[in-house]
Specification:
Helix content: 25-40%
GO cellular component, one term: side of membrane
Structural class: alpha/beta
Largest sheet: 9 strands, parallel
Pfam family, one: Glyco_hydro_17
Distance between the termini: 28 Å
Number of helices: 13
Catalytic activity: Hydrolysis of (1->3)-beta-D-glucosidic linkages in (1->3)-beta-D-glucans
CATH topology of the largest domain: TIM Barrel
Strand order of the largest sheet: 5-4-3-2-1-13-12-9-6
Mean pLDDT: 89
CATH superfamily of the largest domain: Glycosidases
Order of helices and strands: EHEHEHHEHHEEEEHEHHEEHEHEEHHE
Low-confidence stretches: 1-8, 338-351
CATH class of the largest domain: Alpha Beta
Shape: globular
Number of strands: 15
Radius of gyration: 22 Å
CATH architecture of the largest domain: Alpha-Beta Barrel
Main location: membrane
Organism: Cuscuta epithymum
């Protein structure tokens, strides 16, 4: 379940939560956001910034909330303790008094790698916020951490050889986390790691798909086998912390996910891959096991993200990480309330079926369908280009791939599975 047995962001019981960002052309109301969370039985959320209206709407729901401090606010809070105290009063203490279940504060986001000039301000800001929590008698109930990217490590593989780049600042962060009983927040994107690896690892490894023992990645220093890239990234963080002498701080995956759409240069940003990754993430977390080097510490994670943020700059994939559109319609079927249960199904397009090319259709008609989908239909067809991973398949399988990509996205806004009579719905997963 999205939120199984959950107590606190760094607690022993495993959970999957979601990140909520609002960089959208048309934002949903706070009431609509909370209604969606309740309908999907999502019990843990992380807000990228303190949204007063959303914090009010979350009151009396029991949903556990991590409130974000922006990178811009970090410098302000480091310089002016009174501003940090006022923020804690307005955005933490007051909502808690109104029965909003705030459990943690996330200070900045990937600040050490995206805004290194402000690195020296990070821990002072965290200390000032913590002092304000102590004054409000909330330091036991609300923990403070800071989400950091895996780019903070100079090496990520093998995990046992990982180390932090900015070790002096990171040491201060870890000292703070250890002294306050908090946890390390890691932004771990296997999508980016896979793309950057340029084929060194199999895509199944990045998608958290089951792999054979021969495909598992072995750490040559420890002999530990890694079935998923996510486990490897989290363990790299544990080893990097241990290298600095910190062995008792747990890791929470603050952001992870997979984009469902991308440009021509982003062939792995597809609906199928996004759905597969997030489904497998829920299954991975809900089994309750830790990483190979820390089996006793269940893996907790927040999916990036609840909504597509269509106002985000950058490539097409930057606006395509959400599991819902801003109007609350699902981008793809994802079982958020039954992870780990046998009845949960495969989680891959099963609710709406798959749109595939019919058998016996003439090649020229399939080509017409493909051309329409890749042109007027605005489908990401990079995977079936001559250098794409699906080009070597038959024309029918290429058509099925494109038809299904189009259908899974456009069925929510009037798209159908027809393609001039060359396509049909099936509930049997098509082979890739």
């Amino acid at each position: 379940m999205m939120g199984i047995g959950l107590d606190g962001a760094g607690a022993a019981a495993a959970f999957v939560g979601v990140n909520i960002g609002m960089d959208m052309v048309k934002r949903p109301s706070a009431t609509d956001v909370v209604a969606l969370l309740k309908a999907q039985q999502i019990n843990h959320v992380r807000l990228f910034y303190a949204d007063a209206a959303l914090l009010r709407a979350l009151s009396h729901t029991g949903i556990k909330v991590v409130v974000g401090v922006t990178n811009g606010e970090v410098e302000m809070f480091a310089r002016t303790p009174s501003r940090a105290a006022r923020w804690v009063n307005d955005m933490v203490a007051a909502p808690i008094a109104a029965s909003t279940n705030i459990t943690a504060i996330a200070v900045g986001n990937a600040l050490l790698t995206t805004l290194p000039s402000a690195a020296g301000r990070l821990v002072p800001a965290m200390r000032h916020l913590h002092k304000a929590l102590v004054s409000a008698n909330l330091s036991d109930a609300v923990k403070i951490s800071t989400p950091q990217s895996t780019d903070i490590m100079s090496a990520q593989f093998p995990p046992s050889a990982a180390s932090f780049n900015s070790s002096a600042v990171v040491r201060e962060v870890l000292e703070f986390l250890e002294s306050t009983g908090s946890f390390f927040m890691l932004n771990a994107y296997t999508y980016h790691s896979y793309v950057d690896s340029r084929g060194v690892f199999p895509v199944e490894y990045a998608l958290l798909q089951p792999v054979s023992e021969a495909q598992r990645i072995s750490d040559p220093n420890t002999g530990l086998l890694y079935e998923t890239m996510l486990d490897s990234l989290v363990d790299a963080t544990y080893y990097a912390m241990s290298a600095l002498g910190f062995r008792n701080i747990s890791v929470v995956v603050a952001e992870t996910g997979w984009p469902w759409n991308g440009g021509v240069e982003e062939p792995y940003a597809t609906v199928s891959n996004a759905e597969t990754y997030n489904h497998n993430l829920i299954l991975r977390v809900s089994n309750g096991s830790g990483t190979p080097s820390r089996r006793e510490l269940p893996l907790n994670a927040y999916i990036y993200e609840l909504y597509n943020e269509d106002g985000m700059p950058g490539p097409a994939s930057a606006r395509s990480w959400g599991i819902f559109f801003s109007d609350g319609k699902a981008v793809y079927p994802l079982n958020l309330s039954g992870a780990g249960s046998e009845g949960g199904g495969s989680g891959v397009n099963s609710a709406a079926g798959y749109c595939v090319a019919k058998l016996g259709v003439a090649d020229k008609d399939l080509v017409k369908g493909i051309n329409w989908a890749c042109g007027e239909g605005n489908t990401n067809c990079s995977a079936i280009r001559p250098d794409g991973r699906c080009y070597g398949h038959t024309l029918q399988s290429r058509a099925s791939y494109v038809y299904n990509e189009y259908y899974q996205i456009m069925r929510f806004c009037g798209g159908s599975c027809d393609f001039s009579g060359t396509a049909a719905i099936t509930f049997t997963p098509p082979s890739e």
